[in-house]
Request: fold
Amino acid sequence: MLAGAAAAAAATAACKATDETRPAALRVPDVLVVKTRDGLAVARDGGLTPGRAGALSATGSMLCLATATDKTTRLDFTTTLAGTHLGGYAVDGRWTPRVVHAGGSLVALVAPEGDPLKPQARAKTTIVIADSAKIRQKITVPGVVEPDAFTADQTGLFVLEWLPANAPDHYRVRRLDLATQRLEPLWTRDKVPVPPGAEEEMRGEGRTAVASPSGRVLYTLYTHQPGHQHTRDLLSGRPGNVHAFVHTLETEQNWAYCIDLPDPFGHSPSSAYSITLSADGTLLFVVDLAAGALARISTETLKVLDVVKVTADSGTAYATASDKQLYLGGDQGVQVLDLAGTPIEKWSTPAVRGLAVSRDLTRVYAAREGGVTWRGSSLGDVALPGLTGLIRVA
Reply:
């Protein structure tokens, strides 16, 4: 009996020692907003929340998720960083979140009718405006309309009005006044309403966007737009023939302005492009990885500073930046450059499916199918089954 007790004690001690020396499971040091096959999800504490249809605020602070049944839709509002559930309720009908206000206070929902950048013909569109407690209003407007961004003061919603409604293939950006429920033209950078006949019309192909750190300004990259005429061209009578540009939308003063991009921008496949901002929001970067070209743009003057040669890569392009470095990702890994576009190093990784910098600017994340890796103040790699892309660090 004594011998048996001694053996059991020894085994217990050995197991305890093994537990104490075994390394703890590696966890992602930040909260990540990611894509999965089922929709948006949050990576927190080494795991993923269930993916659902949803929309994220421009600042990344608020996530609105929807679960639809045959007759109702359950809405849930969650702070991404803390994971705090702010409210949830069921809404009659099937709806999907399209846009969340930069501050997270409002969401615009529409019926889930296919790709918003390849919309179906319809005579009218109903938009639901909601907060975390209730539905505020339902607005029905004629034609094919898709929400794009809230105005900073929450009195309006910028929308894409697709034309013609019976066979939509291009659109113009307009402001929907939430009080009058009327569609209005934007203003020019000189704060003058765009006159009839001078509103820009764009195509959805090659459309990708990034918001300023405050969420006040939305920069949307358009490629494959031959023959496009800007408002300034239409007003002056000059012919337009730009293939790529950045549409700048100021959501507080309600004006828009387009920054033309020189050749070779606009000729590569749409997936070859990515757009990002420096951490302080003063520099805007547009990369064409297929052509190996990087445009640096001043957000103060809205002018292209220069075009820098970078290493060409294949596949889908991704970009992110900190206060000192720029990161470009493709099939062959991650290029690290300074903000002037000078190469620093290259990381060999699986095909990149998203790049993001931590809020404290000390770590950069590169996503792949089914996991993420990070470098900087700490190093790590974690498998996250079901992950298909990385949107941002919460």
User: Anything to note?
Assistant: Residues 2-21 form the longest helix (20 residues). The chain has two helices and 32 strands. The helical segments are 2-21, 231-236.
